[in-house]
C-alpha cells in the first residue's frame, strides 16, 4: 500500500505543509515552506529511483509512484494559482496617487 512508501508519505506531508503555510503566522510560514520544499525533493528522488530501477521487463510503476506524480503536479498547479490570486489581490488593493 502507498502509506508504507516513503515518497508517497512525503507527498502527503508536502500537501499538508503547503496548506498549513497558507494559514500560519508570519514566522512559521518560512519554516513550513522549507519543509514543503524538502518533502518535494524526497518525492522527486523517489520517482527518480523508481524510473531508474532495473526491473525485468522494463520500468514498472506502482500506485504509490503514480500518486506521487499526481501530488507533485497538483502542488505545482495549486502554487501557480495561488501566486496568480495573490498578485491580483495586491494589484486590486494598490491605490494610484496622482
Portion in beta strands: under 5%
Q: Which segments are poorly predicted (pLDDT under 50) over 5 or more consecutive residues?
A: none
The share of residues in helices is over 70%
Main β-sheet: number of strands, strand sense, barrel status? none
Describe the structure.
- The protein has one domain (2-91).
- It is mainly α and 98 residues long.
- It is 78% helix and 0% strand.
Quick description:
With 98 residues, this protein is an all-alpha fold. The chain contains three helices and no strands. It has helices spanning 6-23, 26-52, 63-93.
Helix and strand topology:
Elements (H helix, E strand, L loop, with lengths): L5 H18 L2 H27 L10 H31 L5
Kindly list the characteristics that best describe this protein.
98 residues, mainly alpha, 3 helices
Amino acid at each position: 500500500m502507498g502509506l508504507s512508501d516513503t515518497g508517497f508519505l512525503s507527498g502527503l506531508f508536502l500537501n499538508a505543509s503547503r496548506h498549513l503555510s497558507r494559514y500560519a503566522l508570519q514566522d512559521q510560514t518560512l519554516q513550513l515552506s522549507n519543509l514543503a520544499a524538502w518533502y518535494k525533493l524526497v518525492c522527486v528522488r523517489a520517482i527518480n529511483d523508481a524510473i531508474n530501477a532495473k526491473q525485468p521487463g522494463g520500468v514498472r510503476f506502482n500506485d504509490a509512484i503514480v500518486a506521487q506524480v499526481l501530488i507533485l503536479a497538483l502542488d505545482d498547479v495549486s502554487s501557480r494559482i495561488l501566486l496568480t490570486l495573490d498578485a491580483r489581490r495586491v494589484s486590486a488593493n494598490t491605490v494610484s496617487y496622482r
